[in-house]
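To whoever is covering the structure queue this week,

Two jobs came back overnight. Logging them here so there's a record in the thread.

Job A:
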Amino acid sequence: MRMPKHKPYVKLKEALKRRGLSYQDLSRLLNVSITTVCNKINGKSDFLISEISRIEQAYSIPRSVFLPGEFR
């Protein structure tokens, strides 16, 4: 039985857009492919805690954008 995928990170998408950042910028920061970033943002895989910390530090995007609404 497959585990359900999480919802896309809509708040992260919005934060990237507001800062003028692309998936390519994020892929360079995390040292992964653009496809991997796309899969993570769209809910097909998860971000590692270390990746979330890097995003938070580099782009001042709060880690709360990675939490489901009921945890914010």
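Job B:
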Amino acid sequence: MTFDHNHHHDHHGHDHPPPDFSRAFAIGTALNLAFVLVEGGYGFMANSLALLADAGHNLSDVTALLLAWGSMIMARRGATARHTYGFKKGTILVSFGSALFLYAAIGVILWEAVGRLRAPAEVNGMAITVVAAIGVVINTATAFLFMAGRKDDLNIKGAFLHMTADAAVSAGVVVAGLIIAATGWNWLDPVISIAIALVVLIAGWGLLKDSLHLTMAGVPAHIEAEVVLDYLTGLPGVQCVHDLHIWAASTTENVLTAHLVMPDGGSDDFLHETAEHLCHDFAIHHTTLQIEVEDTDGSCHINNKNQGCCWPGRSARQPGSQISTPLTHTGEIP
């Protein structure tokens, strides 16, 4: 039995480092922190729960931005004997924490809004309108800073969603302030606060789901594991594939390991070409392949998923295969 592996670093357009959003984080954090202080102060003076709720929400966003910024800096640290993948996983953990911050803000807003509905307080509608309008400008400008990277990095996507939701929330508060100023409907202040909570709930669900999925070593959303398995089993000389695992090392880097049964063995060229194809077509940046000349333990015939070990193996249908009956593949991805 022979063992070969290939640890593939980025090629074919993937050999540059991820874009540096440090400047965007610095500007966004400074703008939003200043706005939190202004909005919170005017919220107290105007006796507006909507402004205070939005200020609390923005404060959670500032914290999320700082954590995301810190995790990206930490991800650039080199690997060590204790952390052989480096500290890239921190970007995933922070994106999950960012989603939790959103939901914590929802709880506070709803609690206060219910209390205000029972006993509405008089508020200054024009003060609400002016301060919230400033928030629309600041949040929209900050969202634009992260727009370019929202499709490639879950952390950047989280920052973009935070700021976009904030801009929408602030726009709603502007409308509410105008209505309160014109009608004196003070009950509208807590109602808008509840609407803010619902917007935050919807905006944060995708981030919470995606980050939790990656935390559990799930296959990244843009990678189809079935298609990767089809590619590997279709390679020349591959009799079957088993123990295929695909997961995220960070919010921007993906990893694959697999066992390939190849009766005639494999070459370094085969390993390098396969890894480059996985990188170019599937955005899998780190590939480790183990080549075995025979399936001595029957891994390709055992549904290891029932044993909690690995995704089921698959036999290739090709001339000269020593395995007469291909494994039935369920198509289920745990």
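Note for Job B: The longest strand covers residues 240-248.

Please reply-all if you pick these up so we don't duplicate work.
Q.
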